[in-house]
């Protein structure tokens, strides 16, 4: 299987509009981060999108991707769902409706935010979504095992996803011990890391992530949902322990 990072930035992306912070002004392509999202390709070529934020359209065009077979949503914050309307060309081309997998609270939220995707009398050109509420392990296309991981994001519970020995977790501020059991000795651990030192109420920062890596002992860790306050890609990459890396937009990993 393959995972491609479509975006690795926090909710405002990098550069932030109007920011004169050196990282926002960097000319290094790896310092330009669209909102966090990833595309998983199965062995048979099925394309599974994780989160669909405001940069979804640009991410599909930049990466010359033209197929999405299912969408997994971690949670309902804007930077993770607001691009769902842009699934329209793919829905019209390939199917009558796009399967979207999420927890029950997020399903209610998606219906609230995109009511026209569920109405009986559809406006011509409106998208159509099929919501599937997930709680435990399930199989996509009789091929891809997906294990949801229960993650704490400040005051809400959100989902991470595990495929084989790869776990994808964004927007975490805490992970319970029970869920940590699912995350021990992974080949690939993908985890959010907002910035270096200043604590944040709903996102892990670097010292918390490094402590978690020490505890869970993945073979390789990639950081996502990064703010410009973390620093320049190349500098931070040099300071990180061996086997911990910053992800960047367009990076692919085979697992
Ligand atoms: Zn987010
Ligand atoms: Zn969030």
Automatic annotation (TrEMBL):
InterPro entries recorded: Metallo-B-lactamas, RibonucZ/Hydroxyglut_hydro
Domain Metallo-beta-lactamase: 34-228
Gene3D superfamilies noted in UniProt: Ribonuclease Z/Hydroxyacylglutathione hydrolase-like
Superkingdom, natural source: Bacteria
Xref: PANTHER family: HYDROLASE C777.06C-RELATED, HYDROLASE C777.06C-RELATED-RELATED
Name the record gives this protein: Beta-lactamase
Source organism phylogeny: Bacteria, Pseudomonadati, Bacteroidota, Flavobacteriia, Flavobacteriales
